[in-house]
Amino acid sequence: MAESTVVMPRVAETVDESYIAEFLVSEGDTVTVGQPILRVETDKAMVEIVSTHAGTLTRWLVALDAEVSTGSEIAVVAS
Questions:
Q1: What is the dihedral of CA 28, 23, 51, 2, to 10 degrees?
Q2: Taking the model in full, what pTM does it have?
Q3: pLDDT tens digits in sequence order for the chain, 79 residues long
Q4: How does DSSP classify residue 9?
Q5: 12 in Cβ contact with 42 (< 8 Å)
Q6: Torsion over CA: 10, 13, 17, 18 (sign)
Q7: Containing H/E element for 42?
Q8: C-beta separation of 36 from 50 below 8 A
Q9: Which of 17, 26, 36, 54 is least surrounded, with the fewest CB atoms within 10 Å of its CB?
């Protein structure tokens, strides 16, 4: 199985840090490209982050309530 890393995208032009608010899938779940996998909170909004890879989400690389920067690796997906 090949592993790919999902990276935290920029959620707004002026936002580089967000907080993990909710996981929408669990480790071991199957995900598709474009499927929302978690929600992050900025100072102004809640934003859904989508998977950029299809396969099985094998592990989260972030914790609930953790601060995450744009470009940080957030999950591993095996295909």
A1: -30
A2: 0.92
A3: 799 999 999 988 888 899 999 999 999 999 999 999 999 999 889 999 999 999 999 999 999 999 999 999 999 999 9
A4: P
A5: yes
A6: negative
A7: none
A8: yes
A9: 26
